């Protein structure tokens, strides 16, 4: 699929995933269990259409130092998944609900020259429309804050 995308001008971004063994497939590991591995994989294509989707929440669960990992990956980061957690569960919480050091992470991302969107990947379980609107507004305020942090460094 990656080669098909390259031939047709469509980029591919591999996400840093959690390295978990699926119970039904004990030998099935997700690639990218360390940011160095995912970079090796991306670089094996030797094409600027192939890059990385940096998932901040997954990196936090893996206890990676975001600024070091982002700095190492540099301009290979093509897109983002913005969410937070406290390092125990893949909660997909809003950016302010967890322990990610956003100032450090956004500074590192800005230093790479990243100019793509900050894509939220937060989960909302509200069924009530007014609560959902409130959640959406809060997410917007959070991502606006992260954009301001990037501009301070950029």
Give the end-to-end Cα distance, rounded to a whole number of Å: 34 Å
List the total number of helices: 6
Mean residue pLDDT = 90
Name the strands of the widest sheet in spatial order.
1-2-3
Question: Radius of gyration over alpha carbons?
Answer: 16 Å
Biggest β-sheet strands, sense, barrel: 3 strands, parallel
Can you give a write-up of this model?
By secondary structure, this protein is mainly α. 42% of the residues lie in helices and 10% in strands. A three-stranded parallel β-sheet has the order 1-2-3. Strand 1, helix 2 (35-43) and strand 2 form a beta-alpha-beta unit. The protein starts with a helix and ends with a helix.
Outline of this structure?
This protein has six helices and three strands, in the order αβαβααβαα. It is mainly alpha-helical and 154 residues long.
Notable characteristics:
single chain, 154 residues, 3-stranded parallel sheet, 3 strands, globular
Compile the SSE list and pairings.
Elements: H1 2-7, E1 12-15, H2 35-43, E2 50-55, H3 56-61, H4 66-73, E3 77-81, H5 102-111, H6 129-153
Parallel strand pairs: 1-2, 2-3
